[in-house]
């Protein structure tokens, strides 16, 4: 039996966190992450193909950590097979935890942990009573127009093992949503609850419930800072 949207709200799959987040906080965070977002712009301008399961669309993840090589990054994830490409100032890796390829951009030089991010994680930790962020606990997720993941959970795969996350939208469009649902008896995805995670707010979401992200915008991409909440 499929849950209704009201039942997903009762599960608190999504809530906006009240941490007095201001436009100044948002701007400071965005500035502190430009070292990472600049590499994405350089990759897109280069015209290099990005592996994807949706022709004409793409997704790129950028871990916010002290790691500058694929070997160091994947050593923290256990037994994960991956492919790597050298793009001069950064590495591009591809691995397949699911049928869809996951593409990760790893800068070869880093400015250190952004202080604005560390302050945000501290504020979130005090509010939620949990460790938030930390080593290997934050990344940027950039998706293009027309992109969507298959529905999945993040608490039971081989390397994420996280049930809740915080999303901070840096660039978005009203046509991009996070959605929760289930599979019917034939294995088809059934989406029951959709939320647009608007910029200027801090969003606490459950990822131990089947979910996905869908960008229905015909042109605009979406970039979120995503931070792990440690149960």
Description of the structure:
This protein has 231 residues and is α+β, with helices and mostly antiparallel strands. The protein has one domain (5-230): Jelly Rolls, CATH 2.60.120. The chain contains five helices and 13 strands. The chain has helices spanning 5-10, 23-32, 34-46, 70-75, 115-128, and strands at residues 14-17, 59-63, 82-86, 90-95, 102-107, 131-132, 138-143, 164-171, 176-183, 189-195, 202-206, 211-215, 222-230. A hairpin with a 3-residue loop joins strand 3 (82-86) and strand 4 (90-95). The two termini are 28 Å apart.
Total beta strands: 13
Please tally the helical runs, counting DSSP H or I stretches of 4 or more residues: 5
Form type: globular
The name of the CATH topology is Jelly Rolls
Helix content: 10-25%
Supply the CATH architecture.
Sandwich
**Cα-atom radius of gyration:** 17 Å
Q: Poorly predicted ranges (pLDDT <50, ≥5 residues)?
A: none
Q: Work out the strand percent.
A: 25-35%
Instruction: Output mean pLDDT.
Output: 94
Number of individual domains? 1
